[in-house]
Every structure is written in structure tokens, then in C-alpha cells.
Design brief:
The chain is about 50% helix and about 10% strand. It has 8 helices and 7 strands, in the order βαββββαααααββαα. Strands 1, 2, 3, 4 and 5 form a 5-stranded antiparallel β-sheet that branches. Strands 6-7 form a two-stranded antiparallel sheet. The longest helix is centred in the middle third of the chain and has 95 residues. The protein starts with a strand and ends in a 17-residue tail after the last helix.
Length: about 325
Amino acid sequence: MSAIATKQDNVPDYTYWQNALRGEFGPVHDEPCRPGFWRKRVSRGGAFVPVAVWVEGGSLVAIVDGRQTEPDGSLWSYICRYPVTEEAYRQRVETGRWPDEDAAVTESLEPPSVGHNNPPTDPAEILSGQIDAALTGVDGYAEISDDETASRAQSLRSRLLELSGLADKTREAEKKPHLEAGRAVDAKFKPLVDKAKAGADLIRKALSAHETRKDQARRAAEAARLNAEQEAAAARAKAEAAGKPAPKPVAPPPPAPVPVQTRVAGAYGRAASIKTIKVCTVTDQDAAYGFLRTHKELVDLIAKLAQRAVDAGYSVPGTTVEEVKDVR
């Protein structure tokens, strides 16, 4: 097989590839490939295939998954960010697997099939199969004790995050026309809903204030009645002790209390119910904190605020700070 090559005036060396292996990438231009070992996706979200580029007779030669390919800018743009070691390249060529790629990742990248003759076409079904295939490898990384395992674990994590992102983008794309239609309906009717509700809420507020005043008046009348009864009873007891007739009341007895109203009904529509609620106003924050200090929501909130303060560089009394590694 004759080599497919591109003649170079200044033949590139392996410097770019060697730097890329260390994570040092130079500017990427639409130019011929650089010598080295790389990998390339066969499709968006597809598997990585091995790529080798070298200089032969003063010209570049490129092999992609065993096939010679033109080492021009169109190939370079797909491989320049994916350098691999020569050992990794050769293992992939010989075994079909990358040393830093979990087997579940490879499985999830295989084209989906059902009965070998009827592959699924629904994006959700395809993604479900890919995600299920990738998830089979998760249990193997409950604990990681060496860097080689960490590399494979990260490959699986990256694949799962990729599938999660793809599923979310697909969800957004399928939902978009329905969402836009829903927004059009909201734009048409929501102002009407809000306008009518705002008027009803104003009346509700006035009704609540009216019923509160009535209840306060009822409570005051009931207190006055009970006080009058107690004073009359005390006067009778005093008169009896002195052997005198009971004194006549100086004023008519207060009327019996009005029954507590539980509904407000009008000539139109349903009646409104009336219930008594308790509105709490904190007047002593320290005392309130002392009572609520062990409440889970408050404990969680304090922990959240303390973490935020530590992140901002403050030292928070009553806390300990431990430096740990967080993989993102």
C-alpha cells in the first residue's frame, strides 16, 4: 500500500505531541497534522479510534484505525486535543481497548441493536441503552486505590456526564416546541388570571381585617361579661356575709356572646371559610434562637452559611476546616 503523504517544507517533529501529553497545548490552526499518537471519535458521542502520524521520507503519513488518511487540517482538528502515549496506542490496536477507558465505556459506545436486525431509533431508547451499559461499571469504583484505576474511573465518569448532557440537550430539544406553545398560552391568559386574582386578594385582605376586628370585639365583650359576672358574684357573697340583701345590678348584664362565625357567604359563588391562624413576630432573637437552635432546618442553614463564609476566606468560630480534594 502506498503511503498517503503531505510534503512539508519544514517537516514537523514530535514536540507538539510530547507537550500535549503533559497537557500543554499550543494554538490550533487549520494545518496539517503533527507527528505523534492520537485518538479520534468516529462520530459525535462515538468511540475513540487510534491515530498515528509520523514522518516518512520527508512527508507526513497518517493511519486512522488501520486506514491511511490524508494528514491535513480536517483530520488535525479532530485529533489535536486527544494525545495518547505510544503504549496506549499499541494496546488499543492490539486488544481493541484503551488502557484508560473502562470496559463499560466501550460497551456504551457500541451501536445499539435490538435482535441484531431492529436497532432502536427513539433517542430516549438509544440513550437508555447507552446509560445502562455505562452504569454496569460504576460498582467497580466504589473505592479507588491507584492512579490506573482512577484513570479508568474518570473515563467512565466522563462518559456518564456526556450521556447526561446529551440526554438533557435532547430533552430540551423535544420539549422546546411544547414549551413555546405553553408560553404563548401563558402570555394570553396569565395576565387575566393575575388581574382577577389581584382583585380577589384585595377583597380577601379586607374580609380578613373585618373578621379580625369582629373577633377582637367579641373577645372584649366576652371578657367584659365574665368580669361583670365575677363582680356581681363577689358583691352577692359580701352582702350574704353581712346578712344584707343582694345588691341590685347598676347596669343590665352584658348580652350573651355572639357565636363565632365560620363562613362568609354572598349571593354569588361559593362561601369563604374563616379560620383562626397564629401570626408569629420575633421580638427577642436570642431567646428564639435558644429555643430553635437544634431544629434541623436551622442547623442545616447555619452549616450552609458557615461553609459560604469559609469559602469567602473567613474563619468561623465553632467550626473546624479540613482541606480535601474535590474532583469536578
